[in-house]
Amino acid sequence: MTASTAAPGPAGSSRDLVLGRVRAALADVPPGEAAADVPVVRDYRDAHRPDDPAALLDLLAENLADYRAIVHRTDEAGLPATLARLLAEHGTRNAVVPPGLPPEWLGEIVGVELLAGAGPLDAARLDAVDSVLTGCAVAIAETGTLVLDGGDGQGRRMLTLVPDHHVCVVLAPEQVVASVPRALPRLDPARPQTWISGPSATSDIELSRVEGVHGPRTLEVVLVACDPR
After folding, report:
1. What integer pLDDT is reported at residue 227 of this predicted model?
2. CA atoms within a 13 Å half-sphere pointing along the CA-CB vector of 31
3. Where are the strands (E) in 77-193, listed by range?
């Protein structure tokens, strides 16, 4: 590990101050030692809530709704009917279904063309699709965040960034964690990840919130309370 060799800034600048502190902190590091050679103790609190599955699910629902996602709750038996109802209420004519999505979830969907997410769907074709239906890798209660990593039932990132309506299924309690530090060990950093906190939105233009700028305008999340057995 070596100190920065960047050109110095103006004398007495904040940049000089920061780099000076970095050099001082690295002064006793043996030549050739890398950061990975030194274990870092991470004994700090990694969540602010107790591990109560029901409470975490309530918190997740609250934070998702705060981000203007539409939250629904059901159980495993009621999931197919719930998905069919949401697509019908949205007026969906066609929907993308990524590879690996459990076929039993789709058992009650009628009158909707289901498009295979593994097929040759480019951005222009996806732009004409009404909805996309996916699962997720993990859901973070404290931040109201869904994480997709391209695994089974999630598909490639484009599938959830182009269509205007995204229905995402979260299986509780196994996919719900309290915090970001608890979510990260479950994720493979080599996989393409999409972190979703509510529908796509920006307030960059005159501080006026505009939804659907770089992703779905409508995000519906189905929280499924599964049998813990």
Report:
1. 66
2. 0
3. 94-97, 113-116, 131-134, 138-140, 145-148, 165-172, 176-177
- Give the CATH number for residue 73: 3.40.50.10420
Q: What is the DSSP letter of 142?
A: T
Closest CA to 219 of 81, 90, 78, 77: 90
CB 155 within 8 A of CB 105: no
Q: Are the beta carbons of 75 and 94 closer than 8 angstroms?
A: no
- 187 in a domain, yes or no? yes
Residue 153: is its pLDDT beyond 70? yes
Chain segment 78-90, per-residue pLDDT in tens: 999 999 999 999 9
List of residues 6+ apart from 81 with CB closer than 8 A: 74, 108
Say if pTM beats, i.e. exceeds, 0.70: yes
Q: Quote the CA–CA distance of 222 and 55 in Å, as a whole number.
A: 17
**Given this model, what pLDDT does residue 46 score?**
82
Residue where the block lists tokens 């001082």: 24
Whether 80 maps to a domain, the answer reads yes
Q: Six-digit token pair at 103?
A: 């076929």
> Domain total for the chain?
1
Positive or negative: CA dihedral 152, 158, 160, 164: negative
